[in-house]
């Protein structure tokens, strides 16, 4: 089995992370893999915001918690020290698919480096809010972007589970 297929089959979402910092070189390698995701007409329109600052990470986590409706103190980022927020411009017809491919590449690249990941939703609602828009403005990001997802990454503080049995009757041949 080749390495890509092996990573696809082995990768699992991590929902408990160690607080250990992820080296910048590894974060950069993961982000680069995201930038190489396929995109409609090769437009490469999705963007990635790398959040390693603990205050900003906690600010986004709190926004996400409130949107999700969880009790105070819950961390929807599961303690991951790094958040990779993927956004895409709404004026690109394939923006949602393009951003989703970026997310997939980020998670697979993280796994290949021994780093855990999890796709966290509610980025759309976060970056549609006034607070989210002010974060984008602070970064100099102009345009009508939609949050596709957060790829939270860090060193797992749990063992990866076995893959669930694949559902049957999902492939049809002609």
**Helix segment tally:** 6
In CATH, the topology is named NADH Oxidase
**For this structure, what is the CATH class?**
Alpha Beta
Q: What is the terminal-to-terminal distance?
A: 26 Å
| Low-pLDDT residue intervals, each spanning 5 or more residues | none
Largest sheet: 4 strands, antiparallel
Descriptive keywords:
6 helices; NADH Oxidase; alpha+beta
Topology:
Layout: H1 3-10, H2 24-35, E1 47-51, H3 54-68, E2 82-89, H4 95-112, E3 116-120, H5 123-128, H6 130-138, E4 145-154
Antiparallel strand pairs: 1-2, 2-4, 3-4
Helix pairs in contact: 2-4
Description:
It is built from six helices and four strands. It has helices spanning 3-10, 24-35, 54-68, 95-112, 123-128, 130-138, and strands spanning 47-51, 82-89, 116-120, 145-154. The two termini are 26 Å apart. Strands 1-2-4-3 form a four-stranded antiparallel beta sheet. It is 39% helix and 16% strand. The chain is an alpha+beta fold and 174 residues long. The longest helix is centred in the middle third of the chain and has 18 residues, at 95-112. The radius of gyration is 16 Å and the shape is globular. It has a single domain (14-154), classed as 3-Layer(aba) Sandwich (NADH Oxidase), CATH 3.40.109.
Précis, in short:
The protein has six helices and four strands. The protein has helices at 3-10, 24-35, 54-68, 95-112, 123-128, 130-138, and strands spanning 47-51, 82-89, 116-120, 145-154.
């Amino acid at each position: 089995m080749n390495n890509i297929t092996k990573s696809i089959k082995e990768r699992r979402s991590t929902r408990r992370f160690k607080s250990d910092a992820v080296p910048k070189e590894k974060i950069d390698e993961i982000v680069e893999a995201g930038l190489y995701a396929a995109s409609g007409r090769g437009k490469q329109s999705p963007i990635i915001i790398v959040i390693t600052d603990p205050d900003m990470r906690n600010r986004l986590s709190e926004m996400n918690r409130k949107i999700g409706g969880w009790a105070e103190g819950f961390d929807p980022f599961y303690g991951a020290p790094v958040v990779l927020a993927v956004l895409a411009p709404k004026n690109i017809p394939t923006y949602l698919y393009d951003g989703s491919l970026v997310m997939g590449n980020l998670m697979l690249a993280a796994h290949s480096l021994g780093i855990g990941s999890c796709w966290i939703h509610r980025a759309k609602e976060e970056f549609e809010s006034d607070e989210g828009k002010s974060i984008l403005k602070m970064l100099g990001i102009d345009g009508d972007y939609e949050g596709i997802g957060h790829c939270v990454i860090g060193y797992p503080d749990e063992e990866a589970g076995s893959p669930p049995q694949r559902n049957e009757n999902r492939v049809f041949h002609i």
